[in-house]
Amino acid sequence: MPRMTKSSGRVVASKKPLRICLTSSEFAPFAKAGGLADVSAALSAYLHSAGHDVRVLLPRYARIDSMGLDIEPVESLQDLQMRIGDQEVHYAIDTVTVPGTDLRIFLLRCPQFFGRESIYTQDDDEHVRFTLLSRAAIEMCQQMGFAPHIFSCHDWQTGMIPLYLRTTYARDKLFAETRSVFTIHNIGYQGVFPAHVLGQLGVDGAEQHLHQDDLNAGVINFLKTAIMYADLVTTVSPTYAREILGDEYGMGMNDLLRERASTLVGILNGVDYDEWDPAVDTLLPANYSASDMSGKATCKSVLQRELGLQEEADTPLVGIVSRLAGQKGFDLVEKVVPRMLTERHFSFVVLGSGEPQLESFFAWLQHHFKGRVCFYKGYNNELAHLIEAGSDMFLMPSRYEPCGLNQMYSLRYGTVPVVRETGGLADSVQHYDPTTGSGTGVVFRDYDEQGLEWALNTALDLYDSKSHWQKMVANGMAMDYSWEQQGAEYVELFRTASESPYEHRMPGSRNNE
Question: Region 94-116: what's the mean pLDDT?
Fold first, then answer.
């Protein structure tokens, strides 16, 4: 396959629509643990609106049944069964309309595996749950007589699909022209299981197809398998695509990814501006736009009042909405922010949950700086929107960040991103230059205390300079990271993959000798 490159500018879709089966373990608003849900939903909506035939399969988790949705069984996709190891698994497929759209998606109903409280578990059958999802996506297409040009697979939970298409289902002429595109949303999550589950994967002669070094080490890696066998591997920003080729960010996949470098592409995620735009955001107490920012001051006042912060219009407010994990750079926040709160006057609001020690730190910070810090443990969508609108700055000091979405939300909301130069943060935020008036945020390079302290001080100093601050805010609000831009690049990529000759050699085959 020829080398794929990220295009610049908007791509005009061909008249010929594509047939796409998109399979994901998350899809907003039905099932969300992170950004994967937003991307799966937004990309599917874009493909549908652009006239492509996109069939989405998502597990019907227990939480979906509590949403009061009009879920209907697909008559031809009931009472299905599949053998997984020594189990005869019974399942069915239903359909539901995505709220606010006319896109209908498919739900894999199998309470035995998906009727649990959490999307992801630590249960011993986690590999079986997502083996079922992957095989059911293919067999759903068989039952419907749907021949996809592209199987769009997302993260390790669908990582076996590329291998299945080349082995178990390779003789089905329905898939003769089908290509697989596997998207890495976060390479840190790989789906590693003991090698003794081999017989449950449903792959004939599985031993010869899986990575031999892994098998010798007694493990099977779903993400690695996807990288080996997908026709095309994508990830969620150009910078992250380069970073994961190296030792620091490759998480053990870097050698294999370098073998596949000619078919590795980074496309920055898009933003759903129907949901994330302060001019139309129904969750805000006041709307505003670049031409009339008065509503932002109202949002800040409401945010301060509702969270018990000192109501001071001129005090800079720094916001965070995040999963509380080491990847997100909060070890630096622990070392820097308490000291800076004693040295400079600003307020701080954090919405999120995650690692217990980080939750404890932010709870301590709130107690120690009453009226200046608020920590809301958990997730609240309305509050997330209010923090984006009411904050002056949004902090993302990530150790690594495949793409990130909040920095792009912040730009649209006139909230200056303060970010580390990594992954999608580097691709979407440009450091502000006071001499030229160009740039959209504050960007620091080195992952250390000095870097974060410099970035926060720089942002606070710029806040004190009204002309520079207004210019930086205006620059950010003018940026366009919509799915109309980014989705078109996926279409171009899918079309190129679908028109490329089939690669009969198994990628990574030298590892199987």
Answer: 97
From the list 173, 152, 172, the residue with the least C-alpha distance to 161 is: 152
Share of the chain residues as helix, strand and coil, in percent rounded to the nearest 5: 40, 20, 40
C-beta separation of 131 from 200 below 8 A: yes
Separation of alpha carbons 182 and 291, rounded Å? 41
- Please state, rounded to an integer, the average pLDDT across all residues of the chain: 93
pLDDT of 206: 74
Distance CA 309, CA 347 (A): 8
Angstrom distances, CA of residue 46 to CA of 50, 58, 102? 6, 17, 12
Residue 61 in tokens: 């988790």
Residues 116-133, mean pLDDT to the nearest whole number: 96
Q: Which two tokens stand for residue 484?
A: 């109309």
Residue 94 has which token pair?
Answer: 């239903």
* DSSP string over 241-308: HHHTTSTTTSTT-HHHHHHTGGGEEE----B-TTTS-TTT-TTSSS--BTTB-HHHHHHHHHHHHHTT
Which pLDDT value is given to residue 11? Answer: 42
| Residue 483 CB neighbour total at 10 angstroms | 22
pLDDT in tens, 37-54: 999 999 999 999 999 999
Which of 54, 429, 140, 128 has its CA nearest to residue 268?
429
Cβ-Cβ contacts under 8 Å for 82 (sequence gap 6 or more): 88, 89, 91, 132, 135, 136, 139, 202
Residue 48 and residue 103 in contact, taking contact as beta carbons nearer than 8 Å = yes
**Count, residues in the chain:** 513
Gap between the Cα atoms of 500 and 1, Å rounded: 6
- Note whether 411 and 441 are within 8 A (CB): yes
